[in-house]
Amino acid sequence: MPPPEKADPKIKLRDVPHKPGVYLMRDRFHRVIYVGKARDLRKRVSQYFMPSRAMRADIKTRALLESIWDFEWHIAGSEPEALLLEGRLIKEFRPRYNVSFRDDKRFLLVKVDLLEEWPRFRLSRFKKEDQARYFGPFAHSGALRQTIAFMRKKFGVLTFGRGTPTERELKSSTYQVPMKLADLTAAEYRQRIDQACEFLDGQSKDLLDTLDAEMRKAATALDFEKAAEIRNMLDDLRKTTKPMARYNRDQRHRLGVTSTINPLIDLAALGEILLLDAPPRRMECFDISNISSTHIVASMVCFIDGKPANHLYRRYRIRTVAGQDDFASMAEVVRRRYSRVLLEAASISARAPLVADPTESHVDYSPDYSQEKLRDAVARVAEEPENRGIPRLPQLVIVDGGKGQLSSACHELQRLGLNDLPIIGLAKEFEEIYRPNNPLPLILSHDCGALKMLQRIRDEAHRFANGYHQLLMKRRIAESLLDDCPGMTDPKKKVLLEKFGSVTRLRTASQEAIEGTTGIGKKLAEQIFRFLAARS
């Protein structure tokens, strides 16, 4: 399918409003390559299409400008609101030209567990499925921390630690509003918590008006230092308590159909497109990273209900492949992954009694005589309550690549008896979907939610594999430092790394600890200690 025609920016810019919001730059394959925010969308976006911009830009920016094929924008209520939306979209699309927000760090939330006897306000970056109450996320972390400090003094609420107040907290004047915590019951303290929750919820106008009056009074009395302090506090409180939209992943009506991913809808569409029996609630995706022949690694990421299940991610060092061979590497990692799943399920089945009914002792329930599909048998074993921790087979396997990678993976699945396990290949250049026994690729619209779901899990596998590759390269660079140390040999380096684990830990070791290593004498230990100290 040929790429769409390039949009005329001059015509499209006429519709861009002078309002705060976010903009998304797309390439010729309609992939999001950059997400940005702006106080004035038209002014900011128009800068990308000025001829002088490309002349003054660095290499990276020039590459971005040359790749822009189309763009879209979304209006936000304010600049902080646009910042929240920008961060969420960057985490969702992981554009190649964005640097900020691509990691796992998130905006701050305020958590208070009302089930505790003495609830405390604490900062958190993750909203868990518990019974605690959460406020946020908040775009300005500095303003939020100042607001928490203000709440501690104004409402007398606890903001650190856990459990009942310590002896020091009970007597502290910080929480004296108007009486100390030692003179309060847990029920009376809860009234303070309710007032603080209302304040964080945005019911702060009266309190902010009071502070504003105090600021003006201090300025009239020529106490400008106090007035400036109150002014700064007011700015922080207004940033924190100002009502704004909190963007969630299911808010398609806020951003338009083409900008967000609705996991359940997109999974249902994916199941229909691939002719699966049901939406693939559990998907596993494989990617190979062979930037150099020194370290060839692979990753497996798992999505459940369209969301990353980070605790199920796995990474592999390719063992049996010499040189850069994507097909053989993909075959190895698929074989290692699913042979382990089958072995664990088989070991549990072997421990279970084969005869379910004593009166039918003549019936053989062993796998050799069973007509049950292998993947169904693994699923049945995994569903038993006592086996909840064992690996499961996915409803869809995705390999990053085209016909070659898919063929290698299918061959390994057939060898394992999993030839009926749904599997596809996603080729990156034109986003073509390859299926077994089908020579023609499936091409979906770039606006299709099912394709966006596949892109997201593929990009996550790519990120995870590259991260592991970079980690190994850093370790190799650090370990190679020892090669320059006088008197160092490969056996001695191996012994040192086995004992200390890494060069980083070896740097922190004392000379006596190094000398205590087998095969390392006093003179060599002193040389190693001085050598690493000089290069720290």
Annotate the secondary structure layout.
Blueprint: H1 9-13, E1 21-26, E2 32-38, H2 41-46, H3 51-56, H4 59-67, E3 70-75, H5 79-93, E4 108-112, E5 121-124, E6 133-138, H6 141-154, H7 167-171, H8 186-200, H9 205-220, H10 224-241, H11 252-255, H12 263-273, E7 282-289, E8 297-304, E9 307-308, E10 314-317, H13 326-351, H14 374-383, E11 396-400, H15 403-415, E12 423-427, E13 432-435, E14 438-442, H16 449-480, H17 490-500, H18 503-508, H19 511-515, H20 522-534
Parallel strand pairs: 7-11, 11-12
Antiparallel strand pairs: 1-2, 1-3, 4-5, 4-6, 7-8, 8-9, 8-10, 12-13, 13-14
Describe the structure.
With 536 residues, the protein is of the alpha+beta class. The chain folds into four domains: 9-93, GIY-YIG endonuclease, CATH 3.40.1440; 108-241, no CATH class; 263-351 and 366-467, Nucleotidyltransferase, domain 5 (2-Layer Sandwich); 485-534, Orthogonal Bundle (DNA polymerase, domain 1). The chain has helices at 9-13, 41-46, 51-56, 59-67, 79-93, 141-154, 167-171, 186-200, 205-220, 224-241, 252-255, 263-273, 326-351, 374-383, 403-415, 449-480, 490-500, 503-508, 511-515, 522-534, and strands spanning 21-26, 32-38, 70-75, 108-112, 121-124, 133-138, 282-289, 297-304, 307-308, 314-317, 396-400, 423-427, 432-435, 438-442. Strands 7, 8, 9, 10, 11, 12, 13 and 14 form an eight-stranded mixed beta sheet that branches. A three-stranded antiparallel beta sheet has the order 2-1-3. The radius of gyration is 30 Å and the shape is globular. Mean pLDDT is 77; it is low at 248-260 and 352-370.
